[in-house]
UniProtKB/TrEMBL annotation:
Pathway: Cofactor biosynthesis; thiamine diphosphate biosynthesis; thiamine diphosphate from thiamine phosphate: step 1/1. This is Thiamine-monophosphate kinase. It catalyses: thiamine phosphate + ATP = thiamine diphosphate + ADP. Residues 153-307 form the PurM-like C-terminal domain. Reaction mechanism of ThiL seems to utilize a direct, inline transfer of the gamma-phosphate of ATP to TMP rather than a phosphorylated enzyme intermediate. Belongs to the thiamine-monophosphate kinase family. The gene is thiL. Mg(2+) 2 binds at residues 45, 74. It comes from Alkalihalophilus lindianensis.
Length: 328
């Protein structure tokens, strides 16, 4: 990296999508206009080299794309439409300008898909590794809240899409590296890990349904996210393992691990939530009209913030285990 200022000018977008932006990159802070019909939604997530990725698991392009995707996923879990994002990047000498260009290309490609504008950030140096922090800003119809605390007794627990694929892909990448000669099926799994698709469209369908919904995105694994809903709503979630929508390429040697991958692997970035049982079929139909799979995986019962896995003749308590930064 030659110079911080020429780097910033090289990543400044040439074109802006959002008309509500007044001041973008170039001043002390960005300015955009809000709207009374919407609530503003904002969140931030960080990706750290060695923790969230290595040069062997993600390409520079995929690092950028995923850093934005995981944040869009949190907006999706609130039913929000993304508008803006800011990027803080700490760069070590091991990273070339060419690689950093690819990181921004990955972010920009996903940003363009959702008409989301880069409006600011920060660039610093670090001694080792790459750290990317993305903040996203979006909006959702005023007072439309898809909170983790909205689950009620009698609800159906649902998931969008497939789960378990990302953890299986990560296992392959950690063992063989991203340049290995993977089969077509293995490639689907590695891509599930490397290029997760934020469920913005599903979040929007859910937000516009007008049903009471609880919602969370699957970053740390189904067990952990289900526990977050159960705790926030002070209810018991019962999950049927036979109903989990496993990634279709979890075959062969991976079959025996698929339950573990889905429950504790994480990074599928699908949405898990609950809705009154009588509304589930209508929601599923609405989703299927947009080619989004919605699967019922269990039910909400009376209880105090816990999750159980349903077996033939017993229920097993699902601990909030999964990815946890400070317990290994
Ligand atoms: N260091 C921090 N300072 C303030 N708030 C934080 C911090 N870390 C996490 N949070 C907040 O705690 C909540 C849960 O965070 P997290 O588990 O990272 O959510 P998610 O899995 O959806 O990304 C969020 O509201 C987040 O903004
Ligand atoms: C090299 C490597 N090792 C391990 C993992 C697994 N991993 C790292 S972070 C994480 C969970 C998601 O990250 P977190 O920062 O907890 O996201 P949040 O819940 O805040 O959205 C997982 C499964 C990985 N992605 N890459
Ligand atoms: Mg987070
Ligand atoms: Mg989240
Ligand atoms: Mg997150």
């Amino acid at each position: 990296m030659k110079d911080e200022f020429s780097f910033i000018s090289s990543i400044t977008p040439k074109q802006i999508h959002q008309p509500s932006l007044n001041v973008g990159i170039g001043d002390d802070a960005a300015i955009y206009s809000g709207s009374t019909q919407y609530d503003e939604v904002v969140c931030v997530d960080t990706m750290v080299e060695g923790v969230h990725f290595t040069k062997n698991t993600l390409s520079p392009y995929q690092i950028g794309k995923k850093a934005l995707a995981v944040n869009l996923s949190d907006l999706a879990a609130m039913g929000a439409i993304p508008h803006y994002f800011l990027v803080s990047i700490a760069i070590s000498p091991q990273w070339t300008e060419e690689e950093l260009e690819a990181v921004y290309k990955g972010m920009n490609d996903l940003a363009n898909k959702y008409q989301t504008d880069l409006i600011g950030g920060d660039t610093v140096s670090t001694k080792e590794g790459l750290v990317i922090t993305v903040t996203v800003i979006g909006r959702v119809e005023a007072r439309r809240r898809l909170l983790r605390s909205n689950a009620q007794i009698g609800d159906t627990v649902f998931l969008t899409g497939y789960v378990g694929g990302s953890a299986a892909g990560l296992a392959l990448l950690l063992e063989y590296g991203r340049k290995a000669d993977f089969s077509k099926e293995e490639e689907k799994l590695t891509l599930a890990h490397q290029e997760p698709q934020p469920q913005i469209e599903a979040g929007r369908i859910l937000a516009q349904s007008n049903f009471r919904l609880s919602l969370n995105d699957v970053s740390d694994g189904v067990a952990s996210e289900a526990n977050e809903i159960a705790e926030a709503s002070q209810v018991k979630l019962t999950i049927d393992p036979d109903k989990l929508p496993y990634h279709p390429f979890l075959n062969n040697g991976l079959v025996s691990k698929k339950l573990d991958f889905a429950l504790y692997g994480g990074e599928d970035f699908q949405l898990i939530g609950t809705v009154a049982s009588e509304h589930f079929e209508a929601l599923k139909k609405k989703c299927s009209e947009s080619d989004i799979l919605l699967t019922s995986i269990g039910e909400v019962n009376e209880g105090e913030g816990s999750v159980y896995l349903k077996r033939a003749d017993e229920q097993i308590k699902l601990l909030k285990k999964g990815y946890n930064h400070f317990s290994k």
